[in-house]
Specification:
Fumarase C, Chain A, domain 2; two-stranded antiparallel ribbon; mainly alpha; single chain
Length: 428
């Protein structure tokens, strides 16, 4: 085996990459921290098993001796072994349960080992764990969106009177203000935050075929209903009917993440277009260098944000295709393709969120250059005004900015009244 063939030690485990990406494949991945990683997923799955085992004891389905703290076992899990073992079962859950049961038995907790996972199916654990991980990622994105909106409010207020050429189909059209342009950015960010705020976080609990038959067999009908309440309550999720083959919670996640990427992409595109030296109205403060041309100041952050916006829709489309391919009571492949697709999409969204925040914080607006462009192109950008005035028989007005002040005020008012918390009980 040559050095290039050997598995690397990424994340401290031979041959295992904890992130679904990493900084070599996706520069900036470090911004994602532990979000949507294998470690996070394993931790969430253990948490689901813990809450379920506790609930079995609490409702009297399992004996008191089945109670056990799984937390001290989670740190001993062999991620590489679980990763390899997951191929045999199609998911890591069966290998995880086997590993936890073995650890419980080794420590003399045979009753806990016997009752661990009883009544659940692998999809219950995995879907619920994925949503727990996704919820953490969404919270991180919403924190960045809040900071971005606050920054844009300042920009809009500062530049509400800064004249700039409005361009349509890449060509100069009419005068506007940079405050009005930035108001459009601000609306996009608020739209994205509203889409993320509207997400639902339903627990997955259905048993082998979505009927909860095993749960009823273990606990009786009343006990099963109590367990239906206990699992989501213990995890901070919503009670829900089984959604094994109804993948709305996942597709909505993908759509909301893509909405955020769209909003950032629109900002990045403006920064890139207006930052060209021949335009020079905006400048990306990241100013990355060139390996061969020292004179260049590449707009690195804007480029990376645009990259994320270009990649997101295809991942969301895969989630929709997977949803359309669901069949029977649990699907064959349509479910399995979701996990890494969603992990990539949400982790990239977290990364792009941080990069977009830095882009906006460091953005330089050249108001003088903007005004000069309007003045230099006055004959062209005021052509529409002249034609409108001619129709009325009146001389052109002193300005041709329409209701931009009203539009700016509307954006600012929306931002100031926008609700940022994840929900009524929990702040970001």
């Amino acid at each position: 085996m040559t050095p290039s063939d050997r598995p690397g030690r990424i994340g401290g485990v031979d041959g295992v990459t904890d992130s679904p990406l990493d900084g070599l494949w996706w520069p900036g991945d470090h911004r994602g921290g532990a979000l949507m990683t294998g470690t996070a997923l394993l931790g969430a799955a253990v948490r689901v098993e813990q809450v379920w085992l506790d609930a079995l004891v609490d409702v009297g389905a399992a004996p008191a001796g089945a109670r056990a703290d799984l937390g001290d076992l989670a740190g001993e899990l062999d991620a590489a072994a679980l990763s390899q073992a997951s191929e045999a079962g199609g998911t890591f859950v069966m290998a995880l349960v086997a590993s936890l049961r073995a650890a419980l038995r080794d420590s003399g907790r045979e009753t806990a080992a016997t009752w661990l996972h009883r009544g659940l199916t692998s999809q219950d654990v995995l879907d619920t764990a994925v949503l727990l991980c996704a919820r953490d990622a969404v919270r991180a994105v919403r924190r960045e969106l809040r900071a971005q909106a606050e920054r844009l409010v300042v920009v809009v207020e500062e530049h509400r009177g800064t004249s700039v050429v409005a361009r349509t189909l890449t060509q100069p059209a009419v005068p506007t203000t940079f405050g009005a342009k930035a108001s459009g950015w601000l609306h996009g960010l608020l739209d994205a935050d509203e889409a993320l705020a509207a997400l639902r976080w339903p627990v997955q609990l259905g048993g082998a075929a979505g009927t909860l038959s095993a749960v009823v067999e273990l606990a009786g009908a009343d006990g099963a209903r109590a367990l239906q309440r206990a699992l989501p309550a213990g995890l901070g999720l919503e009670p829900a009917a089984p959604w094994h083959t109804r993948r709305t919670p996942v597709t909505r996640l993908g759509d909301a993440a893509t909405t955020a990427a769209d909003a950032w992409g629109r900002i990045a595109n403006d920064v890139l277009a207006l930052g060209r030296p021949e335009v020079g109205e905006l400048r990306d403060g990241s100013a990355g260098g060139s390996s061969t041309m020292p004179h260049k100041a590449n707009p690195t952050l804007a480029v990376l944000v645009r990259r994320a916006a270009l990649a997101a829709p295809q991942l969301a489309a895969t989630l929709h295709l997977a949803a359309a391919e669901q069949v029977d009571e649990r699907a064959d492949g349509g479910w399995h393709v979701e996990w890494q697709t969603l992990a990539q999409l949400l982790r990239r969204t977290v990364v792009a969120a941080g990069q977009a925040s830095d882009l906006l914080r460091g953005l330089h607006v050249d108001a003088e250059r903007m005004a000069a462009r309007v003045e230099d192109g006055a004959d062209a950008v005021l052509a529409e005004q002249r034609s409108m005035a001619a129709l009325t028989g009146r001389p052109p007005a002193a300005t041709y900015l329409g209701l931009v002040d009203d539009l700016v005020d509307e954006a600012l008012a929306r931002a100031r009244t926008h609700e940022h918390p994840v929900n009524a009980q929990e702040d970001l």
